[in-house]
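Open question from group meeting: does this chain pack into something compact, or does most of it stay loose? Before anyone orders reagents, we agreed to write out a predicted structure and look at it together. Recording both the input and the output here so the notebook holds the full record.
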Amino acid sequence: MPFGSSGDCEYYGKLCEATEGADEYACNTQKCCEDFGNTITTMFIRQCLISSDVLINLFPELTYDEINFYRYIAHMYCYIQSPGGIQKGLSVIIEGPPDSCNKSMEIVEDVFKKELSSFSSALRKYEKFFK
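Structure tokens returned:
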């Protein structure tokens, strides 16, 4: 099986099992990962995302929300740096991802929006000091 192939998506199922279902993102991502198929672009993106996820999970002090925030950032990074990734990302934005990705996307997007809102709120608080 080639490096980055959909067989690597089993990582998410194994992570789900290892966390006894506590990692809701991992528990909802294996099928999503597989449903992107095995083009050169998706294999590069997939391997980047899985490698990033392995690294993110090496830090036990991170909260679940922080892990999911970094997963969201990893998606942006991996789509940008992978050959053909920008075009693939645009097609996912325009056409939507496979239906199997809805829950995974909801999880990371909700955390990202919450973190962005907190950041914006903090910026507004400090803005008065710079006026």
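Observations to bring back to the group:
The mean pLDDT is 89.
Helices lie at 10-18, 24-27, 30-35, 40-56, 64-81, 85-95, 102-127.
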